[in-house]
Amino acid sequence: xxxxxxxxxxxxxxxxxxxxxxxxxxxxxxxxxxxxxxxxxxxxxxxxxxxxxxxxxxxxxxxxxxxxxxxxxxxxxxxxxxxxxxxxxxxxxxxxxxxxxxxxxxxxxxxxxxxxxxxxxxxxxxxxxxxxxxxxxxxxxxxxxxxxxxxxxxxxxxxxxxxxxxxxxxxxxxxxxxxxxxxxxxxxxxxxxxxxxxxxxxxxxxxxxxxxxxxxxxxxxxxxxxxxxxxxxxxxxxxxxxxxxxxxxxxxxxxxxxxxxxxxxxxxxxxxxxxxxxxxxxxxxxxxx
Length: 289
Known about the structure:
Number of domains: 2
Distance between the termini: 26 Å
Order of helices and strands: EEHEEHHEEHEHEEEEHEEEEH
Number of helices: 7
CATH architecture of the largest domain: Alpha-Beta Barrel
């Protein structure tokens, strides 16, 4: 599948029905387009099986709850819909996007309780998120924006509004020849990339930011558990920017990113070392097991 995302063959599940891809549209006065009232999940299907599918469905429901936007489907219904989308599009290895949003209705202001919550699920073939960086190591800029405090916005939700500064920061990074950007949080601690969590290695031990102002990624949680099963020591803690010079290896984790090595952040360089390679190989084996 190629071309613009609104002009493709296939079917998208919308509000309980399979809809031709090009007809999966919303009205211009959809509340989410004006006030960012939407949440979503990104998921990958490997050899016919969606990795951590149930966890993603449950997180979508929790994100809706955090935005005061109750989603009118159960986790079981979402699971069935995802399976239906894969079958209808004859996909066995794919990326899935589940999305819930406030649609058009009687309200067209900040308040939107009278507007329906709508849900859609699409799937398509999608390769490595960072392209060649998956093997060579991504180059990251340092974003000028900071991840917000959890008392200003629900940082535990995978909400569309939280990604506005991600788009801006990734555009700025790409203009500098980088693959992505690294955020600091509102306190100045190392936080995450625009759509992935970050890990570092020092003296054979792994360090990763505490998810107290960022999304606690499902892939992040998976990799931490995997590392501990491998006998690695993992430190979940606040990391200061000046510590970047002391780390030898670095990688990103996310459903789209999977495990992607990082070769550079700003002026700091990292090896695509053995620990990073071991983690990437172990993750690839796990998702296809």
